[in-house]
Write a structure and sequence with these properties.
mainly alpha
């Protein structure tokens, strides 16, 4: 049993797949954060334009 566990910990055959999955998850989180930041900026611009147009009339 001890030998089996040692071989299991030494086996690195699935390591690349896990690393690619972690990189993909990090990339997805950064895209989501960036999209939210851009969306908040655009919403602020439209709010400012709407306020300016309302006060102009």
């Amino acid at each position: 049993m001890k030998q089996f566990l040692l071989e299991l910990f030494a086996n690195e055959s699935g390591q690349d797949l896990v690393e690619y999955g972690m990189i993909l998850a990090l990339f997805a989180m950064s895209v989501i954060v960036s999209a939210r930041t851009v969306a908040n900026g655009i919403a602020a611009i439209f709010t400012n334009v709407g306020t300016t147009l309302s006060s102009a009339s």
